[in-house]
Structure formats: structure tokens, C-alpha cells
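INTERNAL AUDIT FORM
Audit reference: QA-55
Scope: verify that the stored structure record matches its stored sequence.
Auditor: D.O.
Record contents follow.
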Amino acid sequence: MDRRETYTPGYSDIAVRYMQRRYAARDAAFLLPCLKPGMRLLDCGCGPGTITVGLAEAVAPGEVVGVDIEESQLAAARQVAKAKGLGNLRFETASVYKLPFPDRSFDAVHSHALFEHLGDPLAAAKELRRVLKPGGIVGIATPDWSGNLMAPRDPAMEKAIEAYRQLQRKNGGNPFMGRELGKLLKEAGFARISLSAMYDCYETMEAITELLAQRLEAERSRVPDVERHCRAMREWAKQPDALFAQSFVEAIGYADS
């Protein structure tokens, strides 16, 4: 990302724990069947690397490079890779808008939960295509907040979720980016595009509601009625029958020449 946008979840302890719960067998399951040993793969917006290590295992002995703009996330990712003993994985600081790699450098590119925060997703998608070899594959997963499941329904909670969506828009992102992925890949020049979807069900309601509440509180000058919204989220999360499942759209495309 660059000056046109802000990463809405931030990098607080709870945000980092939220990102660390991701792993390739679930969050990149749509792409894994397309990967083969020996491929060179780029993971854009890799965060703490918990998905990246699974991708590195899938293409070993092929090289995997994880990039993110936040150096603290890359430091954590390097520790994850070291604990796994992976020698085919490295991490670099880079923007998805200006990747420090030559044209046609990778067989595959992956990105999870990045494109919903971008102010210019088309420019980013074109940059992913630039670094792919002819016939290379891209796999992008991003949420679409219109498809979330929440139970029991609560009008105050729904208004609080809308406040968070509005904050993401103010930060340059698009909370409904998921539904745009097919069109995005087509406009970026990808072919043989396929789409799927999955739900991420949070283990505890506090895992998601406390993250959202803290982000609203951190931006209270830009969020009307922030105290009411945060109180609604925290009260809703206490219910023993509560469910919050976030919808992700998954897109695959090929860089056919």
C-alpha cells in the first residue's frame, strides 16, 4: 500500500494474533491444487508468514518470496520460517504497486486479505501479472463484507459493523472487494478466470469483535457514535450462541501470453 490508503486492521497485538491464525491448508486451499514442486512463488501482503510457510512446503524445492510493507510483520514471518526449518523461503519489504522483481519472474503469485485495503487494486493486479511468467497463475482471496453471517441478529451490532465498513472506505479500501475480483483480473489481462468462495468462522467471537472495536476506538475522531458501536460489539460477543462467519471470495487467473 502507499499514501492513498491505510491498513484498517492495524498492527496491534490483537490484530497480529488475528493474522497469525491463518494457514495455507485452509486459507489458500483454492490455490494449493494448482501448485507443483519446483515452482517459484510470490506471496504479496504475506503478513506474519503463517500462510507463506505452507505455500513454501507445497512448492519445495522451488523458491518462495514473501513481501509486505510492514517490517514488523516480516520479522515475525522470518521466525515462523526458521521454526519450520524452511530453506526455500525468504521475505522482503515491498509494495504491491512496485514489486522489486523483473518481468516474468514467478510461476505463481498468491495474495490473501490484501486487495480490500487497496486504493488502486487494478494497478496492483497489473503488477502481479507483470511478474508472472507466461502461463503463470495468480490466486487472490479477499473478503466481501456483504456475505458475512451473524447470529443472533442484532440491529446495534449490524450498525457497528457498518461503522467499521465505513472506516475502511475512508481509509481508501473497499469492504466489498470480493465481488469485484473476477472483473479485476479480467481488466488486468488475466485469462481462464475462476471464482469460488469460503467462510472463515472465528473460534471465539472476541477474536473478531475486539479487533473491530479497538480499531473504531483508535479512530474515534472519524467514527460517529464510536462508544455505542463498541459497546454493542462487546455485548453481542458475550452470547453463548453467537456466530460470526466472514465470507471470502477466491479468484484464480492465468497470465496467458
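Auditor finding: record pair retrieved intact. The longest strand covers residues 132-143.
Action required: none
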